[in-house]
Amino acid sequence: MSLTFASPDPAARPIHVLAPGEVTDWLSDQPDAVRARVSEAGFEGQAGRSLVVAGPDGRAALALLGIGDEGQRRRGRFALAALRRELPEGTWRIATPLDPEARDEAALGWLLAGYVFDRYADAAAPKAMLVAPDGVDAARIEAIAAGEAFTRDLINTPANDMGPDTLEAEARKLAGAFGAAIAVVAGDDLLAENLPLIHAVGRAATDARGPRLIDLRWGEAGPKVTLVGKGVCFDTGGLNLKPGASMGIMKKDMGGAATVLGLARTIMALGLEMRLRVLVPAVENSVSAASFRPGDILTARSGKTIEINNTDAEGRLVLADALTLGGEDAPDVMVSMATLTGAARVAVGPDLAPFYTDDEGLASGLMEAGRRVRDPLWRMPFWDPYEAMIEPGIADLDNAPSGGFAGSITAALFLRRFAGGAATYAHFDIYGWTPSAAPGRPKGGVGQGGRALLEVLPGIGA
């Protein structure tokens, strides 16, 4: 896996990034042999089209990448990532002047194309290397790529090798690498520490894979930022057992935890000024005689009572206790990230991450940042009239309202009930998975929302 840029190299071969209207002008300055090769290949700057042109010695001398017209560019991202695997081994450079956003996107896309998940089978990484384009903050882009690779590795690892205990071990290694403090409350100690919902959801697992709350802290100055990630390492659905087709990729149900840990890695690697706290309720939603049941009424850390109408709506339960705990520290901003609802996927599909917040400034900042760093987001409403849908009457809250309407919104409203201790709260209902390969994003685990948050979090409270 190659997630770094090459050292400056005067012999680096050029990559020319061209739109359809730019090819003719570019060709006018090229030797006859190059013009003939481009004409023969029919290269006209079409979106996603690439061409490697050999020099007189028969070796690759330059490469062309077509990016299409403006409309085509809006339909895709990380075009340079697709080119990386087409290039032969060696050092390359971008020879076309790009605006800052396109330049950063190209640099990040190139590094993301170097990611491979090869833990269980050989997977060839691309051998072509890129000199960081002039003006790119290479260290920042490399830190972002490393954080994303960490997230992807955590999600892609199957549950037999990524249980709550393993997730804890990974968090401990991360803390050790960056000098962060870490504390873990596990098993029946969760009851003693008043984290009953985390215990209830995870208690059906084996002792070795029992429930736990991972609490990582780093930084001594700047805004107080708390990231809460859903760490359901495998979700059977509990007694409301999922059908087999729905259970197949439930190793990704800890995608929220993986994303906040990857974001934390980037924040710490860059040495950003903030008081960072990461809370991960890590559980396996298993089936045994100890499973929590439909119809149970559980009492949360906050004292609120919750009627369980579906044990497959467990993520909001473990997050509720973690959000309450996080709010007791009065952070400037608290963010929850979770692979929470199928309703979000029905609404916006796998590639777009919906988020919720009542803070207009944070919402506009996230939308703009997501556009700028190619981390697509879409704001959804905390729609107050739906509050009644999560109030069953027999208890304070219902974990799975009947009717099937507005499932992502009602889940977000449920979580907001536990996040009141934070000055500002945002919730991301992510998918955490790329169902089919795309440039810079192989099929499998993926982080969503982290790059946009990285842009806005340092300015919280300023």
TrEMBL record:
GO BP: any one term: proteolysis
MF GO annotations: manganese ion binding; metalloaminopeptidase activity
Gene Ontology, cellular component aspect: cytoplasm
Coiled coil ranges: none
Boundaries of every Cytosol aminopeptidase domain copy: 310-317
PROSITE patterns attached to this UniProt entry: CYTOSOL_AP
CDD domains to which the protein is assigned, alphabetical: Peptidase_M17 (cd00433)
Keywords: Aminopeptidase, Hydrolase, Manganese, Protease
Xref: Pfam families: Peptidase_M17, Peptidase_M17_N_1
InterPro entries given in the database record: Leucine_aapep/pepB, Macro_dom-like, Peptidase_M17_C, Peptidase_M17_N_1
Record carries keyword Repressor: no
Family membership noted in the UniProt record: Belongs to the peptidase M17 family.
Protein name according to UniProt: Leucyl aminopeptidase
Species annotation: Palleronia aestuarii
